[in-house]
């Protein structure tokens, strides 16, 4: 009988402390700084270790083009070693972290003895040199200036989660979307192109087929498109197709603010495209975004979209919104409501029935 010489019990990495800090930057002042020059936050403490946010308005490397803001978190307690996860984010104009510009590291060994090549970490623009971790291309300066500067300032946030190293092997988060997005950006190995209003978009048949049953039928079925290398699409704009194509590769959408001032219209167009190509998750995401952005001005067009493209929950929510007398009185004066009455008389009948039910229900004392 074989005999084990050593018993090994798997262990886990546990968090022993965390801290968060915001760095508010005077945009007009810092945009004059040269490439490679940083502004720093106050030093803050997490689990007994000292940390600092370093913000480079024109990039951290002197060879950078100056197009991007770089954000780094530096471990200031240089004589000690610590493992931590770092999350950095940009605050939007409502004072909330912007999802599109939220980045999280893997478990990183902050140590002066670290050679700066953490094999457990990945990311197209992630950088480390042992005692710091960050992103050299965190956000483009032009995007930041256009959408995120508030009263002359822009705010970055950072959370540091310090870990107790008990011998476990850290598993980095999935980054398949990042890599597939890079493949799309570089046009590596594309075997199909789409022409939309004169613009050409390269793609990969196998990716589209894996993500959409409609594309699978078109590109690998008996349809004429299966043998073609270029397909012209109608009834979709280049901007909508570009965003949908990126979603097919990355499973993510750009931040609403990056879709421009008409983001509500974009989400409606994306929902229509998602319905056309049977992209159920994208369709639900768009429905949620439309509901999150609903207002007196948009509720009628959103309700019409929900009815046309079979979004029952969005439809029900919009009707509930109109049940409030103040909302209904104002919405009824909009052009969108007039079109709703003309195109969808049954919705108006349903709304009237819901109003009767709503007002006849006795209130609970």
From TrEMBL:
Residues 190-257 form the BTB domain. Pathway: Protein modification; protein ubiquitination. SUPFAM superfamilies: POZ domain (SSF54695), TRAF domain-like (SSF49599). Residues 20-160 form the MATH domain. SMART domains: BTB. It holds the Pfam family BACK_BPM_SPOP. One of its GO terms (biological process) is protein ubiquitination. InterPro entries: BACK_BPM_SPOP, BPM1-6, BTB/POZ_dom, MATH/TRAF_dom, SKP1/BTB/POZ_sf, TRAF-like. Belongs to the Tdpoz family. This is Uncharacterized protein. It comes from Triticum turgidum subsp. durum. The lineage of its organism: Eukaryota, Viridiplantae, Streptophyta, Embryophyta, Tracheophyta.
């Amino acid at each position: 009988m074989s005999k084990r010489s050593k018993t090994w019990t798997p262990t886990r990495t546990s968090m022993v402390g965390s801290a968060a800090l915001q760095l508010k930057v005077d945009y007009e002042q810092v945009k004059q700084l040269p490439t490679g020059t940083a502004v720093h936050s106050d030093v803050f403490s997490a689990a007994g270790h000292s940390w600092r946010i370093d913000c480079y308005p024109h990039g951290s490397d002197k060879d950078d083009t100056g197009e991007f803001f770089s954000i780094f978190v530096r471990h200031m307690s240089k004589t000690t070693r610590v493992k931590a996860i770092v999350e950095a984010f940009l605050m939007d104009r409502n004072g909330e972290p912007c999802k599109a510009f939220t980045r999280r590291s893997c478990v990183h060994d902050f140590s002066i003895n670290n050679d700066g090549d953490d094999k457990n970490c990945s990311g197209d623009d992630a950088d480390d040199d042992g005692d710091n971790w960050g992103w050299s291309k965190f956000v483009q300066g032009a995007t930041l200036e256009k959408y995120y500067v508030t009263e002359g300032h822009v705010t970055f946030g950072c959370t540091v989660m310090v870990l107790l190293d008990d011998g476990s092997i850290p598993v980095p988060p999935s980054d398949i979307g990042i890599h597939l997005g890079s493949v799309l950006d570089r046009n590596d190995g594309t075997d199909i192109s789409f022409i939309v209003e004169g613009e050409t978009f390269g793609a990969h048949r196998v990716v589209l087929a894996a993500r959409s049953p409609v594309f699978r039928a078109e590109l690998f079925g008996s349809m004429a498109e299966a043998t073609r290398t270029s397909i012209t699409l109608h009834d979709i704009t280049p901007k909508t197709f570009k965003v949908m194509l990126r979603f097919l590769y990355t499973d993510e959408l750009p931040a609403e603010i990056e879709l421009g001032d008409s983001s509500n219209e974009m989400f409606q167009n994306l929902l229509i495209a998602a319905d056309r190509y049977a992209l159920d998750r994208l369709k639900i995401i768009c429905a949620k975004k439309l509901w999150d952005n609903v207002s007196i001005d948009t509720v009628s067009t959103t309700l019409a979209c929900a009815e046309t493209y079979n979004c029952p929950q969005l439809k029900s929510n919009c009707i509930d919104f109109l049940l409030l007398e103040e909302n209904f009185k104002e919405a009824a004066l909009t052009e969108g409501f007039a079109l709703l009455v003309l195109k969808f008389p049954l919705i108006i009948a349903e709304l009237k029935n819901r109003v009767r039910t709503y007002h006849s229900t006795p209130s609970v004392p």
